[in-house]
Amino acid sequence: MQEHFQENEDVVTEETAADAAAESTSNNETAGAEQKPVEESGEPADNSPEAEIDPWEALELEVAKWKDQAIRNAAELDNYRKRMSREKLDAVRYGNQSLLEELLPVLDNFNMGMQAAAQEQGSMLYMGMDMVHKQIGEFLSSQNVEEIPAEPNGAFDPNLHEAISQEPSTEIAEGNIVRVVRKGYRIGERLLRPSNVTVSLGDQPQPESE
């Protein structure tokens, strides 16, 4: 009886081993089927955009990007230097602008005194005032200040002249300057004060008297 049990145990052991071997073979076949695409291609499939870009091409794109950025920075730096140089020059050229604007009314009064003294040009008063007038002119020239041209019968320029009145004239064309009421000045390209002028209306018909 013991020998019979021993034979049955050996049969069960052989069957169990056979089943385990069959299961192992099946698992290996399944794993092989799943890994087959990887074995055929030699590497995992990757369809991402990064995998399609050539490394050299990516490097060239990166170099081009930084080169463009460097050019932009250089241009901005050059513009900044030019702007600072221009502002520095303007600060030197127009630094006395406010002072000169306050000086103009004093110059207007002095010119009125010159016109009154001109009635006696041989007097010591006129000669003294004329010398002072020349010194003032030299000072204004040294400050890059010049008088705005405004002559009778000259063209009216709204950028340089200010019309404070209009009147008819048979001698001066319409729109031209009749007279200068107050002189104007500019410093460099900047306007200190426009010239105040009277502008002609041209030959206007006179109303009939009753």
Automatic annotation (TrEMBL):
A Pfam family recorded for this sequence: GrpE
InterPro entries registered for this protein in UniProt: GrpE (IPR000740), GrpE_CC (IPR013805), GrpE_head (IPR009012)
Keywords of this entry: Chaperone, Cytoplasm, Stress response
Domain of life where this protein originates: Bacteria
CDD domains membership: GrpE
GO BP field: protein folding
Predominant location category: cytoplasm
Skewed-composition ranges (Low complexity): 18-29
SUPFAM superfamilies: Coiled-coil domain of nucleotide exchange factor GrpE, Head domain of nucleotide exchange factor GrpE
Disordered: annotated span: 1-54
Cell compartment(s), UniProt: Cytoplasm
Bias-annotated ranges (Acidic residues): 8-17
Record-level GO cellular component terms: cytoplasm
GO molecular function: adenyl-nucleotide exchange factor activity; protein homodimerization activity; protein-folding chaperone binding; unfolded protein binding
Similarity remark: Belongs to the GrpE family.
Entry-linked PANTHER family: GRPE PROTEIN, GRPE PROTEIN HOMOLOG, MITOCHONDRIAL
Subunit structure: Homodimer.
Function field: Participates actively in the response to hyperosmotic and heat shock by preventing the aggregation of stress-denatured proteins, in association with DnaK and GrpE. It is the nucleotide exchange factor for DnaK and may function as a thermosensor. Unfolded proteins bind initially to DnaJ; upon interaction with the DnaJ-bound protein, DnaK hydrolyzes its bound ATP, resulting in the formation of a stable complex. GrpE releases ADP from DnaK; ATP binding to DnaK triggers the release of the substrate protein, thus completing the reaction cycle.
Protein name, entry field: Protein GrpE
The encoding gene: grpE
